Amino acid sequence: MKSLAFNSKPKHVNKKPLIRRVVNCWQLYLFLLIPVVWVIVFSYVPMVGVQIAFRNYNFRDGIWGSPWVGFAQFTRFFNSFQFWRIVPNTFILSFYSLVAGFPLPIIFALCLNALRVKWFKKSVQTITYMPFFISTVVIVGILMRVFDSRSGLYAGFSVMFTGSTPRDLFGMASAFRHLFVWSSIWQNLGWNSIIYLAALSSVSPELHEAAEVDGATRFQRVLHVDFPAIVPTMAILLILNSGSIMSVGFERVFLMQNNLNLVNSEVIATYVFKVGIAGSGLTNHSYAAAIGLFNSVINMTMLVLVNWISKRVSKNSLW
Q: Which of 39, 64, 156, 217 has a CA that sits 20 to 30 A from residue 18's CA?
């Protein structure tokens, strides 16, 4: 009689050479070719230009002919007064967005998954997804109209309840972060919840039935059945989000930025744009490249660190 151990021995289903497998499935590899070429052209080839950060770049001599200056551009940035303004601004804005925006799609997905009225559930999904497809320029335009201190809804409610015209929120540096973060959450809440709803759809109904037989309430089933099912997804997304903690969305910040809120709205992305492109004859591409490289190194460090912590704590990681 054959033993169970013998029967459970792993079988090598596909022993064909790689070349033969590629030939047999050439259509699938042809589909893969386009994204691979895109990644190589737009992600790996431009890495040659990173050396601009270590040179005193000028158009006449080109990348390879410009003089090598080592870490002089980084030293200049670290000694600049802008360093102690834009780096904390970038970190605070990103951390605020992560803390406020990460748990809300999870809570929204859990609540939406608990709904049993299908037409209401689909209506809520559609309404919350719609802002994601509105361009950033239109979103900022809507914000400016709604929070206009003279003719917007914000001004109307203020006059109605207080009898006085409110202050201009876009001219207040202290209000910039709140406007930026919560407008981003409003725009992306429904879209960010899709992946959690997909994870919740894989939860076996038998688990809910067993919990219901044991006397668990609906909230307890959400807490002890649904929530654990999306913990691995939460860990992976948290790792990915931490890898861009220093990369605040340029478009929204730049459009909402003005001279009155500049003290809190100037971040690395907008500063690099102003130094490297919009300098009106005073552009310094090497200096801008050094700042951008510093930003990327911090993001990579955060990604590796959070991935290591997640692997130790929850056993979930990217690698």
A: 39
| Residue 152: closest CA among 163, 162, 141 | 141
The reported pTM is 0.81
Coil, strand or helix: which one is 67? coil
Q: Which CATH class is domain 72-313?
A: mainly alpha
Contact 89, 264 (CB under 8 A): yes
Q: Residue ranges of the domains in the chain?
A: 72-313
What does each C-alpha distance from 319 to 28, 161, 252, 267 come to in angstroms?
A: 25, 55, 32, 31
Three-state DSSP state, 282: coil
Crossing angle between the packed helical segments 285-313 and 227-242, to the nearest 10 degrees? 150
Q: List average pLDDT for each run of 10 residues in the chain, which is 319 residues long.
A: 43 66 85 90 87 88 87 92 92 92 92 88 90 92 89 85 85 91 92 90 87 86 89 88 84 91 91 80 81 90 89 81
Q: Which tokens hold the place of 211?
A: 């919990």
pLDDT value of residue 4: 40
Digit-coded pLDDT (tens) for 184-197? 999 999 999 999 99
Separation CA 239–CA 234 (nearest Å) = 9
Contact (Cβ atoms closer than 8 angstroms) between residue 254 and residue 262 = no
pLDDT of residue 247: 82
Q: Determine the Cα–Cα distance for residues 162 and 156; give it in Å rounded to an integer.
A: 10
Q: Are 275 and 288 in contact (CB under 8 A)?
A: yes
